[in-house]
Write a structure and sequence with these properties.
Elements lengths: L7 H8 L5 E5 L6 H14 L4 E5 L5 H6 L9 E4 L2 E5 L2 H20 L6 H11 L2 H17 L5 E5 L3 H35 L4 H29 L4 E7 L3 H16 L4 E9 L3 H4 L4 H21 L3 E6 L8 H12 L4
Parallel strand pairs: 1-5, 1-6, 2-4, 2-5, 6-7, 7-8
Antiparallel strand pairs: 3-4
Helix pairs in contact: 2-12, 4-5, 4-6, 6-8, 7-8
The protein binds adenosine-5'-diphosphate (ADP) and magnesium ion (MG).
Length: 332
């Protein structure tokens, strides 16, 4: 019986069993979804219950698992492995409906006046509304705690940063308002007991604000929880990507995202260099080698894996398994 050497990625998971929220971040198209699926597959094979989930409207988990997953809740892929694609738009529509119902109940109407309805529609087009829907959905998934591992297939980097910074802004903003409300409440309690009715309303608003704040905190704390979260950066050996990644890594550090390491994807296989390949490919290999050298000297031990460019896209369980074996070693 041969014992395969433990890969660095495998070692990181073994060394940090408490990190149950796993994320692969990086620019679009570098392999985040692919690595999320392969990691989920491997963890499930190791006997953990795993949910891979995404808020990306592009339904990329459906593509890689070759299953219709979008907006269907957690869909079982195989033993121990579930995948879920959140339909943020659907959440917004449900939220709109809730607001409409509140208005109908409050004023005893059977139809929401057109002006107000237009307003509700317009408000839903705000990016903040989508953020909020995503916050809600992510929190709903994570608070249930049904899985050993949650692999959060992130939206591209820019969005994730925006999401984190929004969380900070919302949080500060809500803190301020909550504080003001609390002060007002104290003041009103002293000023008059006649304002009972008003006070109750204020209490409701305050409670709602605190609820939003708690949800935002929970959602952004998942990304920044040093004990429970493991964040991997995906890069490829190309100049622009390396520059962007450096900037992003600095920003992520500012938001306290706990980066476990880097995974370099799409490395042209070594054996090509020894074969009789056309100049075109020779040049590409030489170029990659320059960037790989740069990666080794700047990121060094933080690089946990070099993943080769495979001959075709990674879709379906056999291809996912093959990639998981490259990243983590054989499963059994
Ligand atoms: N190592 C690889 N070899 C071959 N194809 C890959 C590899 N990594 C990713 N791909 C393919 O590249 C495309 C983009 O990958 P994906 O994981 O969807 O990127 P992201 O989620 O970062 O946008 C997909 O079609 C995927 O199958
Ligand atoms: Mg993706």
């Amino acid at each position: 019986m041969s014992v395969a050497a433990e890969t660095d990625l495998h070692r990181v998971f073994r060394a940090h069993p408490e990190r149950r929220y796993i994320m692969f971040g990086g620019k679009g198209g570098l392999g985040k979804t692919t690595f999320s699926a392969a990691t989920g597959y491997w963890l499930a094979k190791q006997g953990h219950r795993v949910l891979v989930f995404s808020v990306d409207p592009q339904a990329s988990l459906s593509d890689i698992f070759q299953r219709d997953i979008f907006g269907k809740g957690p869909v079982k892929i195989m033993d121990n492995l579930w995948a879920q694609e959140i339909d943020a738009d659907g959440h917004i529509r449900a939220y709109q409906q809730q607001i409409r119902q509140k208005i109908l109940d409050m004023y005893g109407l059977d139809k929401v006046p057109e002006e107000i309805d237009n307003y509700i529609e317009a408000a839903s087009a705000e990016p903040a509304m989508e953020e909020s829907a995503i916050f809600d959905a992510v929190v709903d998934i994570v608070v249930t705690g049904e899985y050993d591992y949650y692999i959060y297939d992130l939206v591209p980097l820019g969005h994730a940063l925006y999401y984190l910074s929004m969380a900070k802004v919302y949080d500060e903003w809500i803190n301020k308002i909550t504080h003001l409300r609390e002060q007002m409440r104290e003041y009103e309690q002293v000023a008059s007991v006649m304002k009972r009715q008003k006070l109750t309303e204020e209490d409701q608003i305050l409670a709602e604000l605190q609820d939003i704040k708690q949800r935002i905190n929970m959602s952004s704390s998942i990304l920044t929880d040093k004990e429970k979260t493991g964040f991997f950066f995906v890069v490829i050996p190309e100049e622009m990507i390396l520059l962007d990644t450096k900037k992003a890594a600095e920003l992520f550090a500012k938001f306290d995202v706990p980066i476990l390491g880097y995974v370099v994807n799409r490395v042209l296989p070594d054996e090509l260099a020894t074969q009789n390949v056309p100049d075109y490919l020779k040049n590409r290999i030489a170029m990659q080698n320059r960037y790989l050298e740069q990666i080794r000297s700047t990121l060094g031990k933080d690089v946990l894996a070099y993943v080769p460019e495979l001959e075709r896209d990674v879709t379906g369980l056999p291809a996912i398994e093959r990639l998981a074996t490259i990243m983590y070693g054989a499963s059994s």
